[in-house]
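User: My collaborator sent over this chain with a note saying "see what the structure looks like." That's all I know about it. Can you take a look?
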Amino acid sequence: MASSGSGAPLLTQPDRLEQRLKDIPAEPGCYLMRDGQDRILYVGKSKSLRSRVRSYFRSRHDLSPRIRLMTRQVCDIEFIVTDSEAEALALESNLIKNHQPHFNVLLKDDKKYPYLCITWSEAYPRIFITRRRRFRSPLDRFYGPYVDVGLLRRTLFLVKRVFPLRQRPRPMYPDRTCLNFSIGRCPGVCQERISSEDYHRTLRKVAMVFQGRSDELQTLLHEQMGRYAERLDFESAARVRDQLQGLDQLTADQKMSLPDSSISRDVLALAMDERVAAVQLFQMRAGKLVGRLGYTADASGMEPGLILQRVIEEHYSQVDAVEVPPELLVQHALPQQNLLEEWLGEQRERKVHIHCPKQRQKADLIELVQRNAEFELLRAKQGQEQQALATEDLAQLLELPIPPRRIEGYDISHIQGSDAVASQVVFIDGLPAKQHYRKYKIRSSSIRSGHSDDFMAMAEIMRRRFRRWARAKAEGIDVGALRQKGGSALQTDGLNDWPDVVMIDGGKGQLSAVMEALRELDLHEDLNVCSLAKQREEIFLPGERQPLDSEPDQLGVALLRRLRDEAHRFAVTFHRQQRGERMKRSRLSDIPGVGPKRVKDLLAHFHSIDAIQLASVERLSEAPGVGPSMAQQIHDFFHPEDDPALDQEPSQDGFTPSDQAMTSLEAS
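Assistant: Without extra context I'll predict from the sequence alone. Here is the result:
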């Protein structure tokens, strides 16, 4: 590997770029492109590194906009030489999997397709459904993406009934098991009633279900049941028998028989237009369909065979070796079919064949998968067209020159001024972009319990949201030019989030307060701001007394309404969270000697106030900053019936000293 560092893009230094390209050998290997902060932008492979890397900086007008954007940010190029192109393919997959470079994402993060995650890196792994595939550890595994989320949820529900697995992300009680352990649904993970090694063995059986290896798992369980019966361990044999019965129900629920042989294979086909390709991958095991995975890919300027090849590379670089089938059926011939067969064979440690079938039976399978891909493409296109029509209608409604791409919505949530918060939600191309959501705590001292001011709160949020832009404008920077650059996700100056439309939840009062705050920032003429009133769904513009002439059911208004409802939901959720935390903290703060830092340490140690209340004095004293005397004080606060003062002997007249003191107080 070779490397040299410099903070300026190579395109701005022609001499250095030319020298760097000369240093790259004409041998097979992988290349890594880095930006000025040493982050990996892109990882690629080639049988001739020099010619491949040189192509990025020669005929740049032939490159896609995404790649042109990347080359403008490349500050350094590294390379790793390999002995063969097959080794380069395997190395590229590993590098992409480990580093997740921004510009290597061919398959889009389609939120409607969920994954199943097993956190193998933990001592007691969790298993859960997620729509965001983030590699916390190289050991963690994601299975999917699954097209049918309902079937995935039912499968996971049945798996948790068949096998004893942890049912909660956190323990319900600090020092004892819950009901799930008593009824056999959980092996007592919270109290470590099962060893980590034994729990991993159970999870490996569960993983076989999601790898499409249910038949293999049933065979293993039959053998295990026979061994238990031979040892006269009938209780364990009965437990395995119940697991087999549950697996029968599970596999019957998720499999569809196809008229085919018993060979295990994956079948890939796609449907595409000039912009997007919908790829379907059917997993067939022992002649039965056990899983259907879906991907979408950027189809601009790409051949169908190349798209299928990249899907195969990215999909099988993420799976275990046992999940690679002996045969792949593909709709189109692949550009590097022999190379892929060699790479998959090394992964599986057995021969793997890739076919583009023409015979009737296998061709019928391809046609079946292709029909499913066409339905997915139609659904994706309909959604895109609907969102495009909505943004175009909104542009006409607000008299914008072009349809807005980034729309931001703001809302305030509080109860009579207490725990006041605000939300910022973002829609991009008409769809929620949750990675850009923000939440704010209102800082104004005038807004407090018993005194609310939505106008002041909204003005405060606008000042905080756009002060960076106002500072840049005051320094003489052209805001219009910055807005044009705002689409770059890798821009590092913090000015890449200019909205095309800002929507305020409220009427003319909230809108006036917002515009006054923007005038202070000198941005009132740069931003397109509107407000949406709740009662009649009326849209107001700055300086206009009357609402816009619009219909509640037209697409642009419906888009703003979805934005407003999402902002309201996000604000209310954050407000409830803050209120709940305050109530917890205030209850602990009533204990003498427990200040804010100790409250924070207690909640961090026990995770909930209920766990603190149920903890013994010994468990309380284990918390950081809590000694035996403080632990006793906290315990007595939650258990006043254990106070020794309440167990005093009564006096001759039948009253305890405490009762006598209270009686004299009442008499006075």
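A starting point for your reply to your collaborator: The chain is about 45% helix and 15% strand.
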